[in-house]
Every structure is written in C-alpha cells, then in structure tokens.
Automatic annotation (TrEMBL):
Superkingdom of the source species: Bacteria
Species the sequence originates in: Candidatus Sulfurimonas marisnigri
Membrane-traversing stretches: 12-40, 67-84, 105-124, 136-157, 169-185, 224-247, 254-275, 295-315, 322-340, 371-391, 412-433, 453-473
Protein name per Swiss-Prot or TrEMBL: cytochrome-c oxidase
Enzyme class: translocase
Length: 497
C-alpha cells in the first residue's frame, strides 16, 4: 500500500476564518462609532431621530463587546483549533464522517446564534449583565454549540496518531472546560413568566425574559467570577495556545523551554480563577474575598510573564527574523502587549491603586491594550500563517502587511495612552476637595476636561480598524495569488511583495 503524507481537511477551518474576518470588521466598526459618540455625543443620532433607539451608545455597546469577544475572538479560536488540532494530533477531519459532520454543524449552529445575538441586542433584549447579556433561549443555544464543539474537539483527540499532547492542545482543552463551567454557573436564570405566574394566571413579562437565580451581592460575585475568567479562558488561554504553535512554526525555532510552558499552564489554571474579586473592591462583597482577589491578581504576574518570556526567548539568536518578517512582528509585539497588560491588570487590582482607577477610563485602556495588542495581533498573525497552507497560495502582499502592522501599532498606542491620562485625570479630579472638605470639581468638569483624550481614543480605534480592513483585503487577495508548493510551506510563510 502506498505510504502518502497525510492530507488535512481545512473545510471547517476556512469557514471560521471567514467569520473571524467579517465579525472582526463588524465589532471594530461599532467600537469606533462608540468611541466617537463619547467624544461627540451628537453622533448618537447619526441616522436620525427615528433610528436613535438603535444607534445610541447604550444599545450599541453590548453589540461591540459581544461581537469582539464571542464573534471575532471565538471564531479565531475555532478556526485555529480546526487547523492546529489536525496538524498537532496527526489526524485529518476527512478520516471521520462524524467529525466532519460535527464540525460543520458546529459552524452553522454558531452562525445561527450569532445572528440571534445581533438581532436581540439591537432590539434591546438583554439581561443587562456584562458579557452575559443573552436571554435564556440564546443561552441554551450557546450551550448546545459548545457541547458540539467539545464533541468535535475530544473526538479529534481520541483518534489522534500523536501519543503525547503538545502544550497548545492543553490550552485548547482548558478553554473548552473553563468557559463551559463559567457560562453554565453565571447564566443560571429563571424565565419571569414562570417565576411570577399564579395558579390559572399567566406570568408577568415576555416569554423570553429572565432574571438571575442569584441576588444582590451574590449575583455580583458570580458575575465577576465569570467576567474576569471569560478574559482568562477567552482572551488569554486560547491565544497562548495559538502562539505556542504558530511562533515556532513560522520562525523554525523550538520553544525556549517546554517545562516553563507547563509550569505557566498550571499556574494560570490555579491562580486565574481566584482573581475575579478584584472587580468588586470597596463593595458589599466580604473583605476577605476582595483581599484574596487582589493577592491572586498580583501572583498572576508570574505564570503570565512565564508564558510571555518563553515566547520572546523562543526568538533568542534569531531576532533578525523579527526585522524581516511582519508576521513575526505581530506575534512578538503581541507577546510584549501581553506582558504589559498582565502587569497593568494586577497593579490596578491593588486596593490603593484601585481607589483611583475604579470606574475610570484607565480600566478601558487596560482592556484594549490587551485585546487589540495581544488578542487582535495574535489572531491576525495566526490567520496570516494559516492562509498559504489552507488556500495553497502565497500571502498577497508583504508590504501591505508591514503597513498594517505600523498603522495598528500606532492605533493601539494612541488608544491606551489617551485612556491612561484620561483615567488618572478622572480618578484625581473625583477625589479632589477644597479646604472645607467639599468636592473641588463637579462631574461635568471631569467630562469637559476629558474631551481631547476621547477624541484621541477615537482616532486610535479608527487607525486599528483601517489596519484590520487592510488585513481583510490582504486575506481576500491571498485566495487568488500565486499558487505555492508544499516545499515552500515548511517554516516561514511565502509572501508576495
């Protein structure tokens, strides 16, 4: 029998690559609109009074966050899983009709949920819980999608030819298990029509409306245990999985220390879950929970920096590749933003710092230097690496990729520096008082002084969006660029001028 190399089937990976790009454009476009609405409130009515209900900040904001988290990022996680999983486990999706069916079912169910989320959020149907705005029918659909994803993932792992599980697979498994646990517990809710109905009478409210099973302080505690760890298992763990695969493959360098990757993995798994309490400092949550959240947040620097330093040291002796390849630039600067963001977060979790930072735009800046600089850069780099191997075509333009890198880097820097200044200004003005103990500034004074920083933030977001549109165009043109042979795809991705 002829011994031919294994041919991987990227059908499902391609489908999720397309949604990653499309939902990224949607999420970031809405984000730019929101940024300029904060600087110029008249833009809340940019489609006229008749549509103001659908264009104001409060209606669009959850659409932005959910499109970026559960649209762009999650699609990127799924796309890379269906690519990385096959190659690392040495098994093709095409070898199992059941696995291929599950993968396609996963995609189409996911797309249906995305559509229902967009429609419901625009219509104002929301639970009003941050990052958990979906009502109970959509929550059930999300669970079904996640179960299908899990069956697909563990099915592929179960039929693997590679006996040992590479570290990236560990991180993907943790993503699945972590989000499953978080989502189930935080979204336990009761339809109001059931909870308010008496014998023989219909209940109060629409059939799709629900209320949380938790109340008051307990609800806040569960919500931010979920909210912070959605960042852990959506924005951190799967992105680390990506870079542990794509950086060595693109550079031809082995990971600096495999032992450090394992140590960092278990450190993240244990420490991250306890840090959510830092969102509730100076609240009605028990003081020991707040203190524990702060302490574990500071400890979190160790496993986070362990991963980031491991990534940077992977390029030891090969730094000329960073200068030569814009694709590796994305991954290395992404790792740097990861280090930066995972130092900034623990600093903000210290109680004395949080007294100034809480409720200010410094928090917004922290979120975005992580999401734009780490998550965004890494997902784009992963798709750039995948494209020549999935489409058998060289990347359309290296110069376009380089221009995109610098435009988006400038955008991220403008974004987080303006939000640093705005946030610390807010915190200090809110605390300032005169010799009689009266507040020195009214709330509107702080709003007025922040206007230039809000305008700069809008420009930074716009630059990032322009860069993402360049990325989308480059990916689109790649599908019809020069065909490449398998021999050209061993390490560095082939790129046109």
């Amino acid at each position: 029998m002829e011994n031919r190399p294994l041919e991987y089937d990227y059908t499902v990976a391609k489908m999720f690559m397309f949604t990653t790009v499309i939902l990224g454009i949607v999420g970031m476009l809405v984000g730019v609109i929101l940024a300029f609405q904060l600087a110029y409130p008249g833009l809340n009515l940019f489609l006229g009074d008749g549509l103001a209900e659908y264009t104001n900040f409060s209606r669009l904001r959850p659409l932005h966050t959910d499109a970026v988290i559960f649209g762009f990022t999650l699609s990127g996680i799924f796309a890379t899983w269906y690519y990385v999983g096959q190659r690392v486990l040495k098994v093709s999706m095409a070898e199992s009709r059941v696995l291929m069916l599950l993968g396609k079912l996963h995609f189409w169910l996911y797309l249906a949920v995305v559509a229902s989320v967009v429609i419901s959020l625009l219509a104002g149907v929301t639970t009003s819980k941050e990052y958990a705005e979906f009502e109970w029918p959509i929550d059930i659909a999300v669970v079904i999608v996640w179960v299908v994803f899990g069956l697909s993932m563990f099915g592929l792992i179960g039929m693997r030819r590679e006996k040992s599980l590479y570290i990236s697979i560990w991180y993907y498994i943790a993503t699945f298990l972590g989000i499953a646990m978080l989502y189930l517990f935080n979204n336990m809710e009761i339809p109001t029509i059931l909870g308010t109905s008496a014998a023989g009478e219909s209940g109060i409210g629409a059939w799709y409306h629900s209320v949380s099973m938790y109340a008051g302080t307990n609800d806040a505690l569960v919500q931010w245990w979920y909210g912070h760890n959605a960042v852990a298992f959506g924005f951190t763990v799967p992105i680390v999985a990506m870079i542990y695969y794509f950086l060595p493959k693109e550079s031809g360098q082995a990971i600096y220390s495999y032992k450090l990757s394992l140590l960092s993995f278990w450190g993240l798994m244990f420490v991250y879950l306890w840090a959510g309490g830092h969102h509730l400092l100076y609240s009605t949550v028990p003081d020991w929970v707040q203190t524990m959240g702060s302490i574990f947040s500071v400890i979190l620097i160790l496993p986070s920096w362990g991963s980031a330093i491991n990534m940077l040291l992977t390029m030891k002796g090969e730094w000329q590749q960073v200068a030569a390849s814009p694709l590796i630039k994305f991954m290395i600067l992404g790792s740097t933003f990861y280090m930066f963001s995972t130092l900034e977060g623990p600093i903000q979790a210290i109680k004395s710092v949080n007294a100034i930072a809480h409720f200010t735009d410094w928090i917004v800046g922290h979120v975005h230097d992580g999401v734009l600089g780490w998550v965004g850069f890494m997902i784009m780099a992963a798709l750039f690496h995948m494209a020549p191997r999935v489409f058998k075509r060289e990347i359309y333009s290296k110069s376009l990729m380089a221009a995109q890198f610098w435009i988006q880097t400038l955008g991220v820097v403008l974004y987080f520096t303006s939000m640093w200044i705005a946030g610390i200004t807010q915190g200090m003005m809110w605390r300032a008082h005169d010799e009689f103990g009266n507040l020195a500034y009214s709330f509107i004074d702080t709003v007025t002084v922040l206007h230039p920083y809000y305008a700069i933030r809008g420009v930074g977001g716009l630059l990032y969006l322009i860069g993402f549109l360049m990325f989308a165009y480059n990916m689109y043109k790649t599908m019809s660029s020069r065909r490449v042979e398998e021999s050209e795809l061993q390490n560095a991705s082939p790129m046109g001028a």
